Amino acid sequence: MSNARDAILAQLAAKRPAFGRARRGLPSPSMPPDAEAVLRARIEAAGGTLQIVPRAGWIERIAWPVAEHPAAPGRGEGRSSPSVYSTLPELASRGPGADGEDWTDGAPLDLAVLRGAFAVVENGAVWQVPRAPEERRAALLAEHLVLVIEGDALVASLHQAYERIDLATLAFGWFLCGPSKTADIEQALVLGAHGPRSLSVVWLRDPPMPGKGATA
Amino acid sequence: MGHVSRARAFVADAERTRWHDQALWFVRAKRDAAADLVPDWEALRSEAAAIKREALERLPELWIEFEAQATRAGAVVHWARDAEEHNAIVARLLRERGVTRVVKSKSMLTEECGLNPHLERQGIEVVDTDLGERIVQLRSEPPSHIVMPAIHLRRGEVGETFARTMGAPEGLDDPDALTALARHDLRARFLAAEAGITGVNFAVAETGSLVVVSNEGNVDLGTALPKLHIACVGLEKIVPAKRDLPVLLRLLARSATGQAISAYTSHFRGASAGRELHVVIVDNGRSRLLAEPDFREALACIRCGACLNTCPVYRRSGGHSYGTVIPGPIGSVLEPARDLVAHAELPHACTLCGSCAEVCPVRIPLPQQLLAWRGVLAARGLHPRRRRLALRIAAEILSRPTALRLVGGLGRALARALPESLVEQLARPWTRERALPPLPAASFQTLWKRRQATARERGLPARSDAREGDGDAG
């Protein structure tokens, strides 16, 4: 089809328009003083939740979206303990599909716990780069998704977000904002269209040291 | 059959029309609320407008750069001059790999090319996975909106469709339950699919990346599970560089649904081990439109649907009334460029209210373009005979003051003399849904002269008196 290519490119070159509408550039939005509150509002508007906890013992501190605690001692392979895919060393994967094969209705994945890179205050999205193909599949096939961000974890807007992303070397990466959703039936919002029914952003942030200012 | 007769079929259901109108206006209101939260919204629109126009000025260079970058990353780039070439490329890729089950996420381009029927004729099953698109696919209907494909349907109709095609219980019309059924049905199809076809929101020349957004996660399930990803992209979807993405993405979801960002914004570059990414770049009339100074800015469109949601004609006539792949104001500009005779009514499916231009995130001058199409229609003699005649008569009268006075006086006299029902009959179709206002006793000119005379008698400056008075009456 190289002739199609050349024909199209020749057409485009022959019909090149000139609009003369110059870019002016935009000031990048600055971090709002109430960044934490704005981020929480945006995540909740998208149907997600934000939990901010100290790093130590966070697995015990946060509210999990599954009935049984994902780190509770297993009760065999029964359905009472949730199946988990986790990329965080402090939480073990377990249950069907933990070996990276695809989860199906026969072998459902209850929970995926993945590391996110940072959150975008203006829209509540978390930038996430899966390190392996099954990590991306887990993020989609799990009933519930937990994204864990840590440290210098907030940017004001998408402008600053893309400054932190190296697209030229990135095979795949995504902004995730709230759970999968649809409003295609009479505009009624339904969470859990094809992917997770819930998304919880967990921000591991230690309280400020005595004598230092707040870090939010 | 044109827009007017198809719209008549839609508005015959008054309750549906009212719901449709209000549902879309609600989306418009959500767009406004989202825009209000962005302090530099208008500057953002101007920047996006400049980015998309710069891209249109540099299309050959940008696509060559994209091709080089994407190829370096392991993607295979294909070029298609028209729908037939596009469909043939996709079909060949699938056939060569023995693929018979395909999941597709929303892509107006593949709708435009008629990809589904083409593949189905070759024994390949194509499942549309966006819920709205799945619903209309099961009903053998086209989408009626570019972002909300099933917005013309009520929940009961979706329930009936699912009862007929998915074994849903009769009478089920709860959106949660219906969505759960579709989720279960489609999850199995995602897992069984051998290829995923997607559209593209933005192709980045600088890096060879593709950006695709969705709310349901269907784009991602359809590309994360099968080993083959075919991305179909129109020539107008290219942007120069990474720095352009935040500008456009900050506008897209807010303009479309009032969300700050879609649930999934995925960036693809090349193919990873054991997987394939094919990019099919499609012209299909776009380069021809690029040569039309009055209409080519429509190629800046990012398919947010804001112009549909705000359009008083679209909201009240429904997407199917346009008889095109893309309805609404932007469709009424784009589709006549493909076939002016077939879509000759569309430039008139517009009140020139200007609302679409107010919300367009890339500042496409839609009202001016629709007006320009009317000029083209007139120049080519494509207006209906009655309209041509009416316009010719109007031109004759309006260009002769004496004739205007005569006809005006005659009209006012007749309107008073004839029975009201007959007057209404003569004023159809204007009076189908409205009453005629009472006609003034005298012409505007007479009123004006009288007013000037009164002003002179009182010794007042005539002009300022006129400005304070009801100068626009008559």
Question: How would you sum up this structure, described in words?
Answer:
The complex is a heterodimer of chains A (216) and B (474). By secondary structure, chain A is of the alpha/beta class. Chain A has one domain (29-69, 81-204): Rossmann fold (3-Layer(aba) Sandwich). Chain A is 20% helix and 20% strand. Chain A is built from five helices and eleven strands, in the order ααβαββββαββαββββ. In chain A, the strands form three sheets. A five-stranded parallel beta sheet of chain A has the order 1-11-6-3-2. A four-stranded mixed beta sheet of chain A has the order 7-4-5-8. In chain A, β4 and β5 form a beta hairpin. The radius of gyration of chain A is 21 Å and the shape is globular. Chain A starts with a helix and ends in a 12-residue tail after the last strand. Chain B starts with a helix and ends in a 6-residue tail after the last helix. Chain B is globular and about 90 Å long. Chain B has helices spanning 3-11, 14-36, 41-57, 59-72, 83-96, 108-113, 115-121, 131-138, 155-166, 175-192, 218-224, 244-256, 286-290, 306-310, 312-317, 328-338, 355-359, 366-379, 385-398, 401-417, 420-426, 444-458, 462-468; strands at 76-80, 101-104, 125-128, 195-198, 202-204, 209-214, 228-234, 238-239, 264-268, 276-282. In chain B, 54% of the residues lie in helices and 10% in strands. The relative contact order of chain B is 0.12. With 474 residues, chain B is of the alpha/beta class. In chain B, the strands form two sheets. In chain B, strands 1-10-7-4-2-3 form a six-stranded parallel beta sheet, with helices on both faces. Chain B has four domains: 1-37 and 309-379, no CATH class; 53-284, 3-Layer(aba) Sandwich (Rossmann fold); 384-439; 442-474, no CATH class. The interface between A and B is large, with 73 and 97 residues. β8 of chain A pairs antiparallel with β9 (264-268) of chain B.
